[in-house]
Write a structure and sequence with these properties.
Blueprint: E1 6-9, H1 17-28, E2 35-39, H2 41-47, E3 53-55, H3 59-65, E4 70-74, H4 91-107, E5 113-115, H5 120-125, H6 133-140, E6 153-158, E7 161-165, H7 175-178, H8 181-197, E8 205-209, H9 224-238, E9 242-247, H10 255-258, E10 263-266, H11 269-279, E11 285-289, E12 295-298, H12 315-331
Parallel strand pairs: 1-2, 1-5, 2-4, 3-4, 5-12, 7-10, 8-9, 8-10
Antiparallel strand pairs: 6-7, 6-11, 11-12
Helix pairs in contact: 1-2, 8-9
């Protein structure tokens, strides 16, 4: 067992994070990748149905106790929490949990970071300036030297399907204007680099989705494919990437199509996320590519509607922990 565990930031304290963390620990504590949680130890014990929690000061202490107790770097909340009721009052602690995890990953004290889900609205109400986790992590790691194309690029992975996004949390009406040749090329380079380095695929094949129905049908249903996406594909090929497209998105995701590529570069959020969730709703993982640290998260939200009821499923978090450990091992972390 490695002497460097993963770090796991506890996510929104009013959501299902504490519950799924406790369930993931129970599933992995005997032979899974060790992890240390960054959060409120008391809240984790209560949200986890009385799971045994032990406060630790450094991550490596967590490895020693992982089989017997859930190790927690305790950064307590300063206000009471009601399950299912988000509040900006705890935003500073949630942000600090993430910052602490990133710092531990950058210093090499942990092999990577897994982030439990956060809610954006209470963070925005408290003055948080980033669209989400992905962009915040990119800012926190921006000064760190990193070999390879720079992210962040969001990947969703489930089974044999890996999708990445040219735009992330962009309103649909603004997606066409947000697409650029340079942006698609960078996303493709980051994706190909990650498929080689983090997923062990020596010669990755990358499919590029079109934006419009029928990939624009030669300009009859939109010109983005002709003017932006196809030139980006040509640049990727010139850079040595085995890129194909733009292809109609409605024929890219069935089993026979998936056998022809190792990853799909999608143009907008739902184009990438819907097929992943259809393939494996409970087991999908969000991976941030192009960062100097390993970062994964569950492919679901905070679950405020079921928080405190003990019914949240930990499948996606368990998959995220396992994938983070696999990527860290490939990076030699």
């Amino acid at each position: 067992m490695t002497t460097r565990p993963l770090a796991l930031s506890a996510g929104d304290p009013a959501g299902v994070g504490g519950e799924i963390i406790a369930k993931a620990w129970r599933a992995l504590r005997e032979d899974g990748p060790p992890f240390v949680v960054i959060g409120d130890a008391h809240l984790l014990a209560s949200a986890g149905g009385g799971v045994k929690v032990r406060a630790v000061t450094r991550p490596r202490e967590g490895v020693a106790v992982f089989a017997e107790a859930l190790p927690v770097i305790d950064i307590p909340l300063l206000s009471p929490i009601v399950a299912g009721q988000p509040s900006p009052a705890y935003a500073p602690q949630v942000i600090r949990w993430i910052e602490t995890g990133v710092g531990l990953a950058l210093s090499g004290e942990v092999a990577g970071l897994v982030t439990a889900p956060i809610a954006k609205a209470p963070l925005y109400d408290a003055g948080f300036k980033f669209p989400g986790h992905t962009e915040f992590l990119a800012e926190l790691t921006a000064a760190e030297r990193f070999e390879g194309p720079r992210g962040p690029v969001m990947m969703l992975a489930a089974g044999d399907l890996r999708t990445t996004l040219a735009t992330i949390h962009t309103p649909i009406a603004k997606v066409p204007g947000a697409l650029t040749i340079e942006g698609i090329v960078n996303t493709g380079l980051v994706t190909a680099d990650a498929l080689r380095r983090d997923f062990g695929i020596a010669s990755p094949r990358l499919a590029i989705a079109g934006l419009n129905p029928h990939a624009g049908e030669g300009g009859a249903i939109g010109r983005e494919e002709l003017e932006i996406i196809a030139p980006a594909v040509e640049r990727l090929r010139a850079a040595g990437v085995d890129a194909q497209g733009p292809s109609p998105a409605d024929t890219l995701f069935h089993a026979e199509a998936r056998a022809r590529y190792d990853g799909v570069l999608c143009m907008y959020h739902d184009q990438a996320l819907i097929p992943v969730k259809m393939l494996d709703f409970w087991g999908g993982v969000n991976v941030t590519l192009g960062l100097p640290i390993v970062r994964t998260s569950p492919d679901h939200g905070t679950g405020f509607d079921i928080a405190g009821r003990g019914i949240a499923r930990p499948d996606s978090l368990i998959a995220a922990i396992k994938l983070a450990a696999e990527i860290a091992a490939r990076r030699g972390a």
